[in-house]
Specification:
The structure is a homodimer of 219-residue chains.
Chain A: E1 20-21, H1 24-33, E2 36-43, E3 46-57, E4 60-64, H2 69-72, E5 79-93, E6 101-115, H3 119-133, H4 146-150, E7 154-158, E8 161-167, E9 185-193, E10 197-198, H5 210-213
Chain lengths: 219, 219
């Protein structure tokens, strides 16, 4: 799967340029494995970075606005944002401190985020966001009513200007350091789901659904 | 442990205010469990959010500058930043979609980041950052030489203006939804370390050190 993309001067990877990935399909795979993003925006000259959940619908991101009250105040005409998604894959322990690194996959999307106002679109965006995080859950729960839908804000951000950055694989030491007597290698890191904790007030006969019992982000 | 702190209008939690934690010790515990932050800054009117590693030294953060080349260009006099750290603890599956949530702990630090220029301070900052991420590693590896130290940028950010936000515990549904027939509960999420993968060019007799064999963020 390849879908090459030409970065702008704002999204071209400057540092460690060999880690830059300018491929839409590769970026989407990272976006789809993650479900938490960090949204950056500026208010009164101060940058803010807020963690929130997101989903992807084709070439746009839906970003849950819950955490971004400060941002939403300024949002009538859309607001410049940066949405960054990071998956951490491992600690890379080299022989020199300088060559220590991490394995990770990240995506940065720049653009103007706008609030979704149409109720039908908002409902659909909420469904996509929910299914992005827990596939299968939407049909099992009480759907949002009008009041709840009004109280929910979702932002739309087209995935137009973006880049991905990936570091994977082994330790890379300077040639002269391979004789330095220390252990070197990679410690893999993964996010794992534990045993579901059922709510104390479950109705009788409610079995743990598959998406809770076997929750994973791998596709 | 408590060390109450009065938030500014910029750090007071606006949305879900009951989740705001204004306690320095609680914020530090979150910062110490994490080692990846998302740094936000503004360049030419565009916000950027970059993931990078960090460590804490008392009341300041040391932020690895590797990923922030765009930021560093503007950094002579320091630059306004937002450093956000997020630990994800679980998916909260309620009976209504509206009450779905996540368990998480996050810290937001606002301030002016400055580059460390003094070589001795930079070396010490690098040691603190390294020990923050992998405690015990520093003494086992080849130390940075002058050239490497020059090629490393580390930012200093005082932890002066900050807030923490925490959501923990069970599902909270609207009273009338407890009769809705679906499973509800929490799926815990944790970052776990896998089996260390030794480098292919290890010298004979290099055993896996304890910090790699039993890597954990829990203290």
């Amino acid at each position: 799967m390849s879908d090459a993309y030409t970065p702008t001067s704002r999204t071209r990877v400057v540092r460690e340029p060999q880690r830059g990935v300018y491929d839409r399909a590769a970026a989407y795979a990272i976006l789809d494995e993650a479900f938490i993003c960090h949204v950056g925006f500026t208010a009164d000259g101060q940058p803010y970075v807020i963690p929130t959940s997101f989903g992807r619908n084709g070439d746009q991101l839906y970003i849950h606005g819950s955490a971004a009250s400060r941002m939403l105040r300024n949002l009538d005409k859309g607001i410049p944002v940066c949405v960054t998604v990071t998956l951490l894959d491992g600690l890379v322990m080299a022989r020199s401190i300088f060559n220590h690194s991490m394995n990770y996959r990240s995506v940065v999307v720049l653009g103007t985020a706008t609030l979704i106002s149409d109720p039908a679109e908002k409902l659909e965006a909420l469904r996509i966001l929910s299914e992005h995080i827990i596939r299968g859950r939407w049909d099992d729960v009480r759907q949002p009513n009008e009041k709840e839908l009004k109280a929910t804000s979702i932002l739309r951000l087209p995935i137009t200007e973006f880049s991905a950055k990936v570091r994977e694989g082994d330790v890379i030491d300077d040639e002269e350091d391979y004789s330095f007597p220390t252990w070197a290698g990679v410690v893999p890191l993964t996010m794992t789901a534990g045993e579901p904790i059922p709510d104390a007030r479950l109705l009788p006969g409610q079995e743990v659904p598959w998406y809770a019992a076997h929750y994973t982000r791998k596709r």
